[in-house]
Each structure stands twice: as structure tokens, then as C-alpha cells.
Amino acid sequence: MTKGNGSRNRVTKWIRWIARIWSFPILAYALLLLIGYAWNWVTTGVADPYAVEDYPPIEALPPILMFLSVLGLGIAWRWERLGGTITIVFQLAVLLSLLILSPITRDFPRSAAPYLMSLITAIPGILFLGCWWRSRKRAIPSS
User: Fold this and answer.
1) Which three-class secondary structure state does DSSP give residue 19?
2) Contact assessment for residue 131 and residue 76, using Cβ atoms and an 8 Å cutoff
3) 47 Cβ neighbours under 8 A, 6+ residues apart
4) Average pLDDT in the 37-43 region?
5) How far apart are CA 44 and CA 128, in angstroms?
6) How confident is the model at residue 1 (pLDDT cuts 50, 70, 90)?
7) Which distant-in-sequence residues (6+ apart) come within 8 Å of 80 by Cβ?
8) What is the 8-class DSSP label of residue 89?
């Protein structure tokens, strides 16, 4: 093994661990939310007792897409390409739905929070894809 490949392998390991460490609190938070809603649903019969009446169902789309992208982060721990792709695709869908439902220009400080959360969730997905790409390039023998 040449010196260049050894350092390349080490950088790939660092990227992988940064992505895992970054995604762990996101996964833990999403799991806590899911457990909380499930527990509330089991004990009281409704997932969210503070839900507003006549809430349009389209407003639930960004959180559902966000949860699916977090699920992609969990998958990326085992399969980097699949999980990273799921995360990025659903984050792009979240971004598109946010741009349609609540543009940034409307009530800026309050409307910027979902965009920031989307960015925080997308970065480990990008890192997982980068790690997969670097591992793939290492596995292909160069001529």
C-alpha cells in the first residue's frame, strides 16, 4: 500500500466518523420525538393533544419528509450510498415543500428555522455520500 492510499483511507475514516457523530444526535432527537408521540397516543388516544383544528394536511408534509430523511441517516450507518441518497433526496423534497408552503421572505426569523434544520440534517448525508465515493474510488484498481 502506498503512502497516498493510506492517508486517503484515513481521511475517509475521519469523514465517516464525522458523519456518524453528526447524525447521532439527529437520530436520537427524532427517536425521542417518535417515542413521545407514540407514548402520548397510547396513553391519551391522540398523538398531539395541542393540535389545531382544521389544520391543512399539506402542512404535515415537511415534517414527514424530514423524518424520512432522518431514517436515511440511520440507514447510512450501514449502507452509506443508499442512506446518503435517501437523506439528500428527501431533504431536497423538504426544501422544495418549504419554499412552496412558507417562503423565506415571509416572517424571516421564524421561517428560517426549518431551512436551518434541513441544512443540519443534509450535511451528514452529503458526508456519507462523499465517504462512499472515496471508498468506491479506492476499491477500483487504477491502471
Assistant:
1) helix
2) no
3) 37, 38, 40, 41
4) 86
5) 39
6) very low
7) 16, 128, 129, 131, 132, 135
8) H
Q: Return the amino acid letter for 92.
A: L
Which cell numbers hold the place of 47?
A: 398523538
Burial class (CB in 10 A: 0-12, 13-18, 19+), 136: exposed
Count, residues in the chain: 143
Q: Which residues contact 15 (CB under 8 A, 6 or more apart)?
A: 127, 130, 131, 134
**Dist CA 39 CA 31 (whole Å):** 12
CA 94, CA 102: separation in Å to the nearest integer? 11
pTM of the model: 0.81
Q: Which residue has the higher pLDDT, 3 or 27?
A: 27
What is the secondary structure of 49-71 as a DSSP string?
TTPPTT--GGGGHHHHHHHHHHH
What CA–CA distance (Å, rounded) separates 63 from 50?
Answer: 17
Grid cell of 52 as nine digits: 389545531
Q: For residue 66, which of 16, 27, 105 has the smallest C-alpha distance?
A: 27
Indicate the domain borders of the chain: 7-48+60-139
